Amino acid sequence: MKRVVLAASILVFIVCYSITGIFIITKKNNRLVYLIENIQACYEIDDTQNALYYADLLDDEWSRYERYMSMLVADERIQNLNMSIVKIKPYLNEANDELIAEIKNIEHQIKMMYHAEIPTWYSII
């Protein structure tokens, strides 16, 4: 009987951890996407000062995001996203045309990270 209770407890813990992880990923991803969209909007209207402000906010948010997500997401996904986010400020400072492409890349990686972490029958089995 103790084994059944222990197994049920472990199963409940895993389910709760997964559900909580989905909500955390959703909330953090939405915040990152919001900041990235603001950077893009400011860049498109040539407001570099506000774009740099949002880039600083993105760096701060990313440092918190990375800490939370390292418990939930595979490390290589975080490292790929980190490489893209680090390029934002230098591209803004140089007024580089690759900024928009890098922003789209970040948005795509964030969406793919969310979809990869959602449990589905084909990814569990």
Name the features.
mainly alpha; elongated; single chain; 125 residues
Question: What would your notes on this structure say?
Answer:
The chain is mainly alpha-helical and about 120 residues long. It is about 85% helix and about 0% strand. It is built from 6 helices and no strands. Helix 1 (about 1-45) packs antiparallel against helix 2 (about 50-70).
Describe this structure in a few short sentences.
This protein has 125 residues and is mainly alpha-helical.
Q: What are the segments in which pLDDT stays under 50 over at least 5 consecutive residues?
A: none
Biggest sheet features: none
Shape designation: elongated
Structural class: mainly alpha
Question: What is the radius of gyration computed over CA atoms, rounded to a whole number of angstroms?
Answer: 18 Å
Instruction: Please trace the helix and strand order, writing H or E for each element.
Output: HHHHHH
Question: Roughly how many Å apart are the termini?
Answer: 27 Å
**Approximate strand percentage:** under 5%
Give the helix tally.
Answer: 6
Q: Averaging pLDDT over every residue, what do you get?
A: 85
Roughly what percent helix? over 70%
Beta strand count: 0
